[in-house]
Design goal:
By secondary structure, the protein is α/β, with parallel strands linked by helices. 35% of the residues lie in helices and 14% in strands. Strands 1-3-2-4-5-6-7 form a seven-stranded mixed beta sheet, sandwiched between helices. Strand 6, helix 6 and strand 7 form a beta-alpha-beta unit. The C terminus is likely disordered.
Amino acid sequence: MSKWLVNPLPRPDADLRLICFPYAGGNAATFTPWIKQLSTNVELIAIQAPGRASRLFESPHNNMDELIAELLPLIPTLLDKPTIFYGHSLGSRVAFELMTRLKAQGLPLPVHFIASGSRGPQVKAKENTTYHLADDAFMTELENLNGTPKAVLENKELMELFLPLLRADFEIAETYQYNSKITFDCPLTVLGGEQDIQITREHLQGWQDFFALPADIQILPGDHFFIDSHPELVTEQVNNIIGQLTAKLPAKAISQYG
């Protein structure tokens, strides 16, 4: 399997596949522990882009088009069974852009899309970009987001390793904006953090513009990184979706992907 794709527990006989896309600066390790809580009829794949974790010394992408161009050829082989896309923050936008490219090529699409901790893709993440700031100012921004442990921020050697990745991811997050009017027919779930001062309910509702079915918006305890602070509540939401999909996908429907 490609180094882009982390599969903590292969389940070739699973009914569904869950593909997860991490937030800016994040990696597959956010999702791999989920396998212990997820339904046993789902196979988990977590995306591991260059510049992080086992790929730390590879150059990270700082452009959405280049990232998607490298990732896209790897995805069709994962769509041989019903698939859910889950993205958190920047990961939601990466997952959405990937889905638009799949549709443009007439390839199979996910049967459910989960956008987590993110504005709709038509809205820039920030009007004032931060990825190009001097190190001290950039690290202040990181501290304000509350997603980087203070011990890491205060460790000069670690930050020298992580800053290129963080800047690259932030550049994608802060410059990407989707301008097309394409819409999708699959169900949409949107997750938000109750104490997230960055992403409002109105921001979460922005995803509705691209999906024909009404969005199911769920607000969970925690700030922007509720995915890390309350993973059990997130996986509970995911398991609910898996259960609904399993009930709606009789053997005949599932077999069309086989």
